[in-house]
Specification:
The structure holds two protein chains of two kinds. Chain A contains four helices and nine strands; from the N terminus they run βββαβββββααβα. By secondary structure, chain A is α+β, with helices and mostly antiparallel strands. In chain A, the strands form two sheets. A six-stranded antiparallel sheet of chain A has the order 1-2-3-9-8-5. Chain A is globular and about 35 Å long. The two termini of chain A are about 15 Å apart. The model of chain A has no long low-confidence stretch (mean pLDDT about 90). Chain B has eight helices and 20 strands. In chain B, the strands form four sheets. In chain B, strands 10-11-12-13-9-3-14 form a seven-stranded mixed sheet. In chain B, β12 and β13 form a beta hairpin. In chain B, α2 packs across α7. The radius of gyration of chain B is 20 Å and the shape is globular. Chain B starts with 6 loop residues before the first helix and ends in a 10-residue tail after the last strand. The mean pLDDT of chain B is about 95. The chains are: A alpha+beta, B alpha+beta. Chains A and B meet through loops of A and α2 of B.
């Protein structure tokens, strides 16, 4: 079971509330899809500048592996307040720990509603078929 | 989806399986870049049993190949191999192939994804030729050893054949892993020294395991299609569906070495338009390198200022070159070493520099 302290998009992003901000990341499933379990196969992650306003569902960045590139989609609307600088040069951190140290960006959300997102159980179900 | 005879070997070795050309194949066993380095420095083992294999026999086998393929089959010495293409009447290829010439047969190796189309094309153009096509794809497993330590690895399990005497693009038969009369060719798709061997399907698993064991002392690892793609791109070798396809001809792709306009070869399908192109090409396939971290990928657009000038055919992270590399067609005036063009990376521009192909060529001993 994936962590149930956060919400998910079917496109494998997670969002976790942390005080009056939220943190975005991607799931272990997304990492596995991109890198096939090889952390060094992740080559690039493009994150937005702090201050950028994101709408719900908007592509805020891209992540790229040796063989694939994927959009990063915003689970909620808000303003980017911080990015995880470590990630851009050390993608292994994301590969090793997508749930905590591998967070991507911190956002001040326009509102706190998460009802449009999947909970952990819903996300499990959505990747269940693809998980084999 | 089709499975090779070695299908069940891959996952226990860590293989991640993907669909490729209608087959379920290992894309990688470990990190792709490590697999590339393994082949450049040591030796890698590849399951290539998805490749199509056709054996042509009959008195007109050679003449038939000279009608449908771009290379000059009648001039291939017995025991040698040549690269060629099966072309449409436009000159643009249906596939690219290897042609093995024996005394009494011609053996063709074709791309997995095109094998059905190739077979149909060949049969459709066989009228008037006394030739029989036998599809041996399911009867033979195909395994490659690639890398500088290929010869020492394969020699440990080979009898009745002196591999050191087998020249590049030559083939012979010998006993490999106890299996007699195995076709062994000094060929490959990586730019390294290496061998491709063809043995009966029921011997495949035993041979695969013996080869891995024999290669242990040489640092051999199994290598997936991901690294194979990077290796062939570094070596400047085309891949159907990328550098060549129904819209891209072999001349502008730089494959003239596989195209014969020899008078005695006679007319062959696609000859006239390719001769015209050879006299007056309008674009050329070039190599590109970029200093950016982002990986060039097929379909990315190229710009010279505001004008669109081409698209990426193939791209990869190249551990051998130490940069990201790509191929693309550019108009001749831009297809010059040192020319800088911009690549559109999903909305962002990245400068790329034209370099000579191949990106990498091994030092021949």
């Amino acid at each position: 079971m994936r962590p149930d302290d956060r919400h998910y998009l079917p496109s494998h992003e997670w969002v976790k509330t942390d005080g009056d901000t939220v943190v975005f990341g991607i799931t272990d499933f997304a990492v596995e899809e991109l890198s096939h379990g090889n952390e060094d196969d992740l080559v690039y992650c493009d994150l937005p500048e702090p201050g950028r306003k994101l709408t719900q569902g908007e592509t805020f960045g891209e992540i790229e592996s040796v063989k694939a590139v994927a959009d990063l989609n915003s689970p909620v609307a808000g303003e980017v307040v911080e990015i995880n600088k470590t990630i851009e040069d050390h993608l292994q951190v994301l590969a090793k720990d997508p749930w905590d140290k591998g967070w991507l960006i911190r956002v001040k959300p326009d509102n706190t509603s998460m009802s449009h997102l999947l909970d952990a159980e819903g996300y499990e179900a959505s990747v269940g078929e693809a998980d084999e | 989806m089709r499975h090779t005879p070695l299908h069940n070997e891959h996952q226990p070795l860590g293989g991640k399986m993907v669909e490729f050309g209608g087959w379920r194949m290992p894309v990688q066993y470990g990190p792709i870049l490590e697999e590339v380095r393994c082949v450049r420095k040591r030796v890698g083992l590849f399951d290539l049993s998805h490749m199509g294999r056709f054996n042509l026999t009959g008195p007109d086998a050679v003449a038939f190949v000279d009608r449908v393929a771009s290379c000059y089959c009648a001039r291939i010495p017995i025991g040698s191999i040549r690269y060629g293409l099966l072309c449409r009447p436009t000159g643009n290829p249906i596939d690219d192939i290897l042609v093995y010439r024996s005394e009494d047969e011609v053996f063709l190796v074709v791309n997995a994804g095109n094998a059905d189309a190739d077979r149909e094309w060949l049969l459709a153009h066989a009228d008037g030729f006394e030739v029989t096509l036998e599809d041996q794809t399911d009867d033979l497993a195909m395994i490659a050893l690639q890398g500088p330590l290929s010869e020492e690895s394969l020699a440990r399990v080979t009898e009745d054949l002196d591999l050191s005497q087998l020249g590049y693009y030559k083939f012979a038969r010998g006993t490999v892993c106890g299996c007699p009369n195995v076709r062994v060719s000094r060929t490959g798709y990586t730019g390294e020294d290496g061998f491709e061997i063809y043995l009966p399907t029921d011997q495949a698993i035993g041979a695969w395991r013996s080869l891995l064991e024999a290669g242990q002392a040489s640092g051999m690892a199994p290598i997936g299609l991901g690294a194979r793609d990077t290796l062939r791109l570094e070596a400047g070798m085309p891949l159907y569906g990328h550098e060549i396809d129904a819209e891209h001809n072999p001349i502008e792709a730089g494959l003239k070495f596989g195209v014969s306009f020899h008078e005695e070869k006679g007319d062959w399908i696609g000859r006239a338009p390719l001769e015209a192109l050879h006299a007056a090409p309008s674009r050329a396939l070039v190599g590109l390198v970029t200093d950016g971290k982002r990986v060039p990928r097929q379909g990315y657009a190229l710009f010279d200022g505001e004008g669109s000038v081409g698209t990426i055919c193939s791209g990869a992270v190249s551990p051998t070159v130490g940069k990201n590399i790509a191929t693309a067609y550019l108009p001749l005036h831009l297809a010059q070493t040192g020319q800088v063009v911009d690549m559109d990376l999903r909305g962002k521009r990245q400068a790329c520099t034209v370099v000579d192909l191949p990106f990498y060529s091994r030092k021949r001993s």
